[in-house]
Structures are given as structure tokens and as C-alpha cells.
């Protein structure tokens, strides 16, 4: 069925291409479809007297089809994506003509042939889109008014074509596109509002005219359908931001369309602040509302083009005479040339929506999902071994990233899963630069990586393996430089079970309450090879040795025990206690208080040299029965003033040889009743000056053999009453002169 353009006797078609001469191709039929936010597709059937056109040379070349009207030319331009040589014209033709067919696409379409895995950081979606288009030499015109301008911290293109990548970005941000055609070119228009739509070129208004098929004039709408449909009434989405975990990220947009029903709820919403979430919610609601009301039909308006607007006139329903934005247009052109007939026709099928509606491209392009996990290498700033931030996040370089650098700019900051993670407590092990880590992706989203662990490889091999598989360990490495390590190691080999701890420098243990260490069998050894040991106990210290000996060996140095306040008690219930000081001094200082030692058995003190006891007060030595002082040579008792020896009953002073009592002045020996001085042989009492023997009653001097009283000068014996000198045998009185009165 054809609609002839009867207002013109003939329509001129001009076909041009970069590698063709004028007239090489004669248009026979043209079918094309263009639509908002979709690449157009134009198919053209040609005839040519040249049966050997270089088909391959046209691929990728620009081609223009021009249709001339009184109002101006309508251009269809695109990149030749497919060119076919078909059959030769039938035998009735006066000239041998060959049929060719070309399929034209926008330059944007070429992006379907390029795919990539790459990372964009700190760029807006609009900047990313422009960058990708520019790399492929796609001519664009930016008519956006703010959509897609917010910077994304991290955006990944993963195993998807450049076309799919920018398509999903535009769909997510509320951006759309259409094309502007000219002789020899087409331009991609980027937009985000209904103000970006221009009127159709050359003819922006059309009349409704229900004409017969054979007489349909140009620039008319021949058939129209007005349609309304049910759409969603509300859109709501939520998300989560770990930097603000207590903030509820929830955004809702409500529509006002008649008959709308239901709510669309989505997670995740791909937003981190409620303001941007609200904007996206409105965009997604506009997406479903954009084509709620449509005006579609057939026309002979060749200047209809997707993305442009037109004004409807003369429709029998007055409220449909309005301005509409063309959503899609499908063109059909037939140019028939034969011996007896030259006839051409143009018709299109179009779909449009009211001009006050903002179009949003439907989110049709799926975002790639990374199912399962990947591995990546930890990166960081040059010269560092650990590169992290306040959240314990790290940077990595993925194996598929060909453009990224091996430094702190290789990726976004990526969180690291830990065994525990809470407010100021948990577990923290930061993967270090050069380690291989396991990366999963939240909801499979390439833009949301999460490090879940680390793995060994040929460069980073595990300790102890393969020779000691029974050892498990937490083994660190000193940084920077790697000259030492800390380790907690577990040996599970039967018969050799062990927990081994190594500290490269210090070990500090803080225990709030009790500490109990039980050694069921075996020894406890503390070896401080160099340095000191300090133990501070603020309350009690009990040490119990149930069975065995205690030995403290101090090879060199001093030992000091200071008790600031309180008592010290040592109890040895059974066994011996030996303290050996091989060299050096032992000093005990009690600044205030008493010192008492109680021994239920014997107490022996052996001193290899001299023993000096200095007491500022009194010395009292008590013996329940006897008290003996023995010396191999002599015993000296000295007193600055008096020396008193008291005995409750008897006092005996014995000497194996001589006994001498000396006094610088006087020497007094007193007895309450009787005093006896006896000598086995001789007894001598000498005085430097005088010697006086007094008795309150009787004084008796006896000798078993001889008694001699001798004075160098005089010897005087006096008696107050009667003096008596007796001898059992012979009494001799001698002198140079003897006087007896």
C-alpha cells in the first residue's frame, strides 16, 4: 500500500557516499526507524549500472540519502554498517542494473564493537559518557541541564561494550539522546529535559486529514491514535552508606497520574545522600510516566524525526490539537522507476507524547554482575608498605585493569572484612602492599567491591609449608624493612603439641581482673637474657611451693626488696630454705617498725669473717635455759659505761687457764650473802693502787695449800673488833720489820 505525494510531480533522491561517484547508486526503497535513546537503523535498496562496486570499501563510511521537497531537503545520514550486492535487474530492463542494499547506523552504534574492563574515578556520569564518545569520534551536542553532573567516586565498566556502558549510565541518570541530521553528517544530542526538543525542521506543524490512500498529500497526519495506560503511582528506593550507618537512606517519589496504582520498591538505590536519592526517585518515576499518554499514527510528514516536536492541527477532537514530542518514527520510501511509470511515495508511522512531559529513557541496559569472587593485588603509595585509612580500607589493582597504575590511585578505597568489627573494638589485619586479596562485590555490583580475605601465591608463599603442615600460625612482618616479626604459632603434631609466641620487641599484657596459669605437669622457666624484671603488686602476693625446692640464683648484680607499707610473711611448711650469695653484700633496711624472726627449732648463724651488730637501743638476748658465748680465741665485752651480768641464781665464770678481771678504776664484786673465790692452784688479786675486800659480816679467805698476802710496800689487815690469823700447821709472818701489837 502506497501513499503518493501528489503535491509534487516528482521527488528527487540523492545518494552520496565518501567512496562513490554521483549517480552510482539509485534509490529504490528506503526503510528506517529512529527512536529516542536508541540508535537509528536505515535500510536502503539501490540499483546501479556498476556491477563491481567495492562492497568492503563502503563499510564504516558515511552515507547520505537526501530527499528534496519544496520546503527543503530531508537528510538521512549514517555509517554504513552493512553493504550487500544482490541480484541483477530482470531481462526486460533496457540497462543491466545490479541491486545493492545498505544498512546505516549512527556513529554511536560502532561502540557496540568495543568492550572493556576499566575504572573511572571521581568523574561524573556525564563526563564519563562524553569521554567514551570522544574516544570513538562521535560528534555530540550537550543540551543537559544538570542530570548526570554529580561526581561518582568509583565507576566500573566491566566486560561490557562501550555502547552498553554509556547506555546504562544515561538510563540511570535520566539522560536521553536523539540525532540531528545534515548533509554529510549527523550529531548526537544529549539532553535531560523537554526544553531540549526543537521543532521539526522546515515544517513544524501538520494538519490532520483523513485522505484516500491514492490521494494522500504531503505533510499530513492521516491516521491518529490517542492512548492512555495505567502506570505505577509511587517509586521508593533505599540504600546504605557505611560512613553514616545510622542515617536512613530512603527516598520516595509520588505521581499524580489518573488511575496510577502500586509502588515500585528497589534496593540498592545507588545513592549515598537523600537529596540525590530524591532526585533519582523522581527520575525513575518519570521514566514510567513518560509514555503513559501517547499520540501515534501514520503521516506523510517527512521531517518527522525522533526527539523533535510538532504541533497537531485540525484534529476533530480539539484537545488533541496540541504540541507533541516524537518518541519514534518509522520511515518508508518507495521510488519506482520503469519504462512506463515513475512514481514515488513516502509514509511514516510515528509515536509521540505531550510536550509538557519529560522523557526518561527506560532502564533497559542491565548492569553487569560479578558473580562469585575475584582476586586482586594490594597497591599503595610508592615507598609505603601499608596504605590504609581510618576505616581500614585499602587500594587494589584488579588483574583485568589494563589502564590502572600500581599506586594509591589504582582503585577506590575498598573496605576489608574482619573477623569482628565494632565501635573501637574487633579484629584488624590490614592487607599489605603486594599481597593478593580476595574481592567479592556487594549485590554483584562491580562498583561496590569488598575485600574478604587474602591468599598465598608463588611470590608470597606460606611459612612452614610443605615440610611442617602441622604448624598453624599468625606470623607478621616488621615494617618498614621486614627485619623482624611477631608470631603466635600452634604445633599440633602428636606428642609435640606447642603454643609458641615470639615478640620482636615488647610484650604488654593488661588484665583487668584475675590471671590464672596452670601447669599440670612440667616446668615453668623465665629467662631474661638481658635487662631487668619489675613486678608491681598493689595488694597481696601469695606464692605456694607445695613440694620441692626453691632456688634463687643471682649471678651478678643487686637484689632489693622494698615493702612500702604492710607486712611481709614467709611460711615454709616443710623443707629447707637456703640463700646462697656467692659474691657481694646483703643488706636489709627496715626504716620504720620491728624485725622479728621466730624459729621453733635451732637457729644457727655462721659467719666466715667478722660479725658486727650495731644497735642504737638495747640488746636483750634471752635463753630459756642456758646462754653460751664461745670463741676459739677470746671474747671481749665492752661498754662505754656499765656492764652488768645478772643471774637469778648462780653466776659462774670459768677459765681453762687464767682469768683476769681488770678495771681502770674500781672493781667491785658483791654478794648478798656469801661470795667464794676458788682456784684450783693459785689465785691472784692485783690492783694498780689499792685492793679492798669488804664484807658486811664475815670475810673468809681460804687456801687448800698456801695463802700469801703480799704488798710491795705495806700490807695491812684491820679488824674493827677482833682480827684473827690462823694456820692449820705453820704460820709464818715475814718482814724486814714485823710489828705485832
Structure description:
With 741 residues, the protein is mainly beta. Among the domains are: 1-223 and 292-366, Pnp Oxidase, Chain A, CATH 2.30.110.50; 234-289, Light-harvesting Protein (Irregular); 471-502, no CATH class. The chain is 5% helix and 28% strand. The protein has helices spanning 125-135, 162-173, 274-289, and strands at 12-17, 26-35, 38-48, 62-69, 72-88, 98-105, 115-124, 140-142, 151-161, 176-182, 185-191, 205-208, 220-228, 234-239, 249-254, 263-266, 293-299, 309-313, 323-337, 342-354, 374-379, 395-398, 436-441, 449-455, 471-475, 487-491, 498-502. The strands form six sheets. Strands 12-13-17-20-19-18 form a six-stranded mixed β-barrel. It has a four-stranded antiparallel beta sheet with strand order 22-21-23-24, with no helix packed on it. Strands 8-11-10 form a three-stranded mixed beta sheet, covered by helices on one side. Strand 4 and strand 5 (72-88) form a beta hairpin. Helix 1 packs antiparallel against helix 2 (162-173). The protein is rod-shaped and about 200 Å long.
Amino acid at each position: 500500500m502506497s501513499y503518493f505525494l501528489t503535491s509534487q510531480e516528482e521527488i528527487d533522491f540523492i545518494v552520496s557516499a565518501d567512496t562513490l561517484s554521483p549517480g552510482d547508486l539509485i534509490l529504490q526503497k528506503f526503510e528506517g526507524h529512529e527512536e529516542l535513546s536508541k540508535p537509528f537503523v536505515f535500510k536502503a535498496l539501490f540499483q546501479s549500472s556498476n556491477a563491481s562496486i567495492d562492497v568492503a570499501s563502503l563499510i564504516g563510511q558515511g552515507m547520505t540519502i537526501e530527499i528534496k521537497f519544496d520546503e527543503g531537503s530531508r537528510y538521512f545520514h549514517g555509517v554504513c554498517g552493512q553493504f550487500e550486492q544482490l541480484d541483477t535487474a530482470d531481462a526486460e530492463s533496457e540497462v543491466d542494473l545490479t541491486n545493492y542494499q545498505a544498512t546505516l547506523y549512527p556513529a554511536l552504534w560502532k561502540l557496540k564493537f568495543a568492550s572493556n574492563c576499566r575504572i573511572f574515578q571521581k568523574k561524573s556520569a556525564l563526563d564519563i559518557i562524553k569521554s567514551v564518545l570522544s574516544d570513538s569520534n562521535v560528534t555530540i551536542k550537550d543540551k543537559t541541564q544538570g542530570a548526570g553532573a554529580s561526581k561518582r567516586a568509583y565507576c566500573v565498566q566491566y566486560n561490557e561494550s562501550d555502547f552498553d556502558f554509556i547506555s546504562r549510565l544515561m538510563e540511570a541518570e535520566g539522560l536521553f539522546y536523539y540525532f540531528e541530521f545534515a548533509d554529510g553528517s549527523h550529531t548526537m544530542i544529549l539532553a535531560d529535559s523537554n526544553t531540549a526538543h526543537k521543532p521539526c525542521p522546515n515544517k513544524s506543524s501538520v494538519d490532520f486529514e483523513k485522505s484516500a490512500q491514492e490521494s494522500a498529500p504531503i505533510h499530513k497526519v492521516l491516521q491518529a491514535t490517542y492512548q492512555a495506560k495505567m502506570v505505577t503511582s509511587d517509586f521508593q528506593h533505599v540504600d546504605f552508606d557505611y560512613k553514616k550507618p545510622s542515617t536512613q537512606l530512603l527516598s520516595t517519589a509520588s505521581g499524580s497520574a489518573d488511575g496510577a496504582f502500586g509502588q515500585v520498591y528497589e534496593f540498592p538505590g545507588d545513592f549515598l545522600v537523600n537529596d540525590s536519592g530524591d532526585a533519582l526517585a523522581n527520575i525513575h518515576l518519570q521514566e514510567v510516566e513518560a509514555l503513559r499518554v501517547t499520540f501515534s499514527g501514520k503521516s506523510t510528514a517527512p521531517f518527522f524525526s525522533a526527539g523533535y516536536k510538532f504541533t497537531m492541527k485540525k484534529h476533530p477532537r480539539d484537545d488533541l490539537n496540541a504540541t507533541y514530542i516524537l518518541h519514534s518514527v518509522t520511515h518508508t520510501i518507495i521510488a519506482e522507476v520503469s519504462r512506463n511509470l515513475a512514481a514515488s511515495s513516502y509514509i511514516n508511522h510515528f509515536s509521540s507524547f505531550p510536550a509538557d512531559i519529560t522523557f526518561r529513557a527506560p532502564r533497559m541496559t542491565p548492569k553487569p554482575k560479578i558473580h562469585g569472587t575475584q582476586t586482586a593485588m594490594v597497591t599503595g603509595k610508592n615507598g609505603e608498605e601499608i596504605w590504609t585509612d581510618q576505616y581500614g580500607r585499602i587500594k587494589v589493582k584488579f588483574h583485568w585493569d589494563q589502564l590502572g597504575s600500581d599506586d594509591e590511585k589504582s582503585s577506590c578505597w575498598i573496605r576489608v572484612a574482619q573477623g569482628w568489627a565494632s565501635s573501637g573494638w574487633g579484629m584488624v589485619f590490614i592487607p599489605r602492599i603486594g599481597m593478593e586479596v580476595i574481592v567479592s562485590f556487594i549485590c554483584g555490583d562491580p562498583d561496590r567491591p569488598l575485600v574478604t580475605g587474602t591468599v598465598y601465591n608463588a611470590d608470597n608463599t606460606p611459612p612452614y609449608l610443605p615440610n611442617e603442615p602441622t604448624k598453624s600460625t599468625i606470623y607478621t612482618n616488621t615494617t618498614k624493612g621486614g627485619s623482624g616479626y611477631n608470631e603466635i604459632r600452634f604445633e599440633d603434631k602428636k606428642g609435640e603439641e606447642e603454643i609458641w609466641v615470639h615478640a620482636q620487641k615488647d610484650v604488654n599484657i593488661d588484665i583487668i581482673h584475675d590471671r590464672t596459669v596452670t601447669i599440670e605437669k612440667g616446668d615453668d622457666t623465665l629467662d631474661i637474657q638481658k635487662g631487668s624484671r619489675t613486678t608491681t603488686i598493689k595488694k597481696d602476693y601469695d606464692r605456694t611451693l607445695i613440694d620441692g625446692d626453691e632456688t634463687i640464683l643471682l649471678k651478678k648484680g643487686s637484689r632489693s626488696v622494698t615493702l612500702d607499707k604492710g607486712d611481709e610473711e614467709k611460711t615454709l611448711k616443710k623443707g629447707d630454705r637456703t640463700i646462697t650469695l656467692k659474691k657481694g653484700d646483703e643488706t636489709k633496711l627496715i626504716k620504720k617498725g620491728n624485725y622479728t624472726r621466730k624459729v621453733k627449732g635451732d637457729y644457727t648463724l655462721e659467719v666466715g669473717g667478722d660479725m658486727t651488730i650495731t644497735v642504737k637501743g638495747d640488746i636483750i638476748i634471752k635463753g630459756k635455759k642456758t646462754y653460751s658465748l664461745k670463741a676459739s680465741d677470746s671474747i671481749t665485752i665492752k661498754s662505754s659505761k656499765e656492764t652488768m651480768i645478772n643471774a637469778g641464781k648462780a653466776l659462774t665464770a670459768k677459765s681453762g687457764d687464767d682469768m683476769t678481771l681488770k678495771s681502770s678504776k674500781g672493781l667491785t664484786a658483791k654478794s648478798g650473802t656469801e661470795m667464794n673465790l676458788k682456784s684450783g692452784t693459785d689465785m691472784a688479786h692485783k690492783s694498780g693502787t689499792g685492793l679492798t675486800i669488804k664484807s658486811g659480816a664475815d670475810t673468809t679467805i681460804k687456801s687448800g695449800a698456801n695463802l700469801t698476802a703480799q704488798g710491795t710496800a705495806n700490807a695491812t689487815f684491820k679488824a674493827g673488833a677482833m682480827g684473827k690469823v690462823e694456820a692449820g700447821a705453820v704460820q709464818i709472818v715475814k718482814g724486814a720489820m714485823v710489828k705485832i701489837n
